[in-house]
């Protein structure tokens, strides 16, 4: 999802962004600004990320949870087997 907003920027920054787009450093002014904001925004913690996903997508189904548990068990088995192999 995207939301259109209006912001005011100093002229020199607007020119800098436009040049970056013209030089192929970003596909659009919006993409350039979104990337800059993403870099500036502190990373979200795992609990907050999972909560955000639940709000946006709904909680995982029983089938989703079973799949995830099976994948974690498979990775655990693979890691245990690697560590058991002689080096």
Return the string of H and E elements: HHHH
Structural class: mainly alpha
Our count of helices gives 4
> What distance separates the N and C termini?
49 Å
The amount of helix comes to 55-70%
Radius of gyration: 22 Å
Q: Which residue ranges are poorly predicted, with pLDDT under 50 across at least 5 consecutive positions? A: none
Mean pLDDT figure: 94
What is the number of independent domains?
2
| 3D shape | elongated
Protein name: Ribbon-helix-helix protein, CopG family
InterPro entries: Ribbon_hlx_hlx (IPR010985)
What is shown here, in short?
InterPro entries: Ribbon_hlx_hlx. 68% of the residues lie in helices and 0% in strands. By secondary structure, it is mostly helical.
Fold blueprint:
Layout (H helix, E strand, L loop, with lengths): L10 H12 L6 H12 L5 H12 L4 H23 L3
Protein name: Ribbon-helix-helix protein, CopG family
GO biological process, one term: regulation of DNA-templated transcription
InterPro entries: Ribbon_hlx_hlx
Structure commentary:
One of its GO terms (biological process) is regulation of DNA-templated transcription. The chain has 87 residues and is mostly helical. It has two domains: 30 residues; 39 residues, no CATH class. It is 68% helix and 0% strand. The protein is built from four helices and no strands. The chain is elongated, with a radius of gyration of 22 Å. The model has no long low-confidence stretch (mean pLDDT 94).
């Amino acid at each position: 999802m995207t939301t259109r907003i209006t912001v005011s920027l100093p002229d020199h920054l607007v020119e800098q962004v436009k040049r970056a787009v013209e030089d192929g450093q970003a596909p659009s002014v919006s993409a350039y600004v979104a990337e800059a904001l993403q870099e500036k925004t502190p990373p979200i913690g795992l609990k907050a990320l999972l909560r955000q996903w639940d709000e946006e997508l709904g909680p995982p189904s029983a089938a989703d949870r079973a799949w995830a548990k099976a994948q974690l068990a498979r990775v655990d088995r693979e890691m245990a087997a690697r560590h058991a192999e002689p080096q």
